[in-house]
Glutamate--tRNA ligase (Alterirhizorhabdus solaris), 479 residues
Amino acid sequence: MATGGQVVTRFAPSPTGFLHIGGARTALFNWLFARAQGGKFLLRIEDTDRARSTQPAIDAILDGMRWLGLDWDDEAVFQFARADRHAEVADTLLANGHAYKCFATAEELESMRAEQKANKQPMRYDGRWRDRSPDEAPAGAPFVVRLRAPREGAVTIEDRVQGAVTVQNAELDDMVLLRSDGTPTYMLAVVVDDHDMGVTHVIRGDDHLNNAFRQLALIRAMDAVEGGWPDPVYAHVPLIHGADGAKLSKRHGALGVEAYRDEMGILPEALNNYLLRLGWGHGDAEIISREQATEWFTLDGIGRSPSRFDTKKLENLNGHYIREADDTRLATLVLPAVIAQAGREIGPDGAELLRRAMPFLKPRAKDLRDLADASAFLFRTRPLDMDERAASLLDSAGIDLLAAVERAIAGVDDWSATALEAAVRAVAETAGLGLGKVAQPLRAALTGRTTSPGIFDVLALLGREESLGRLADRLAATN
């Protein structure tokens, strides 16, 4: 148990899939609250569903957490390994009259539910074994262990996000703690693990709000037996919705954190910032660093309404962080994609060229894919293939301008963007054209495309030999 009033939060994903974007936000809120309060942030893998829990999913969750910089304190707890402890608590409740054995068969329960449905009653366990002696059951009959939940009165949770929420105890039934094979249920395992891990604040999606009332009944039963089982502070966060207002689902696009990283080229600091602002705010601040978030984060800043996921906003935020990012880091991140596009290794010199290109490439990029695509021209094999629009710029007039540019820049001793611009401007003035009219065929010949960084930056990055070689290739192709 936590001591000295220390705040302890936890993130408890089920490894039946990868780290969902909603789960990542929950983890972020828990991490920030713990760090802001000088407390502990714990990780628990809820792997009790053995049929669906997989090692690749566990690995992906841990990898996603590390990528987002959400480091956890202590060793990760694996729920399945604690099954004996969960059963021990159920046995304690059973021995002290706070739980009982239920021998109702599957057929009886199905009949009960059918009758309740026909009578338009809430479908819940009717307590048929609550006050009966186990001696009434046939010898050796299978049974489950159920919590003897209070039936009178009501429970109010002062939720830190939702406010005061009250449920009548009569609306809750006696939930199952141990199945007929002796294995613990999710509800039992969560309560026992939170207690044993010393969790003081349960921050999770508001789809768990109803569970909180059931779990409180179990917590209070154990507190009555042993003492030292305090109610946690609850904060149930509204779920994330898609742009259409519906609960976020696969049809809304990428959901796993790894998709935002690997397929969409999002930086972790951008995703962290976006998720933070998705349901939490601090005045009008939009760009919020990790340090600021840790300083500012409170549960009071979480809104009660669902937030809508907006991919465009995420991309815009990502563009900001790309512009702020270290050039060496960006070059390292895009290098694999650049190599894949080039179809060859580019070596240390190529990697250095990529790094030097970043200041010219990143102002226009909204993600790492843009950076990789924009840098592809640096490593293309000569003679360059032209896309259709670029080829259209190299008609007879375009070729004449290209030849004039080649002659002009071949005589430039200082191969810098400034000196090259002066030489090309002179060509444009001689031809009576605007600079753009000359830059267009030049860009096409140098990159094979109609978009690129500034054309004089392109010349400077490619260098004298490569630039003149690409121009010569294009002029030779027309003869």
The domain at 388-477 is CATH 1.10.10.350 (Arc Repressor Mutant, subunit A). The chain is about 50% helix and 10% strand. The chain has four domains: 1-75+238-324, 81-237, 327-379, 388-477.
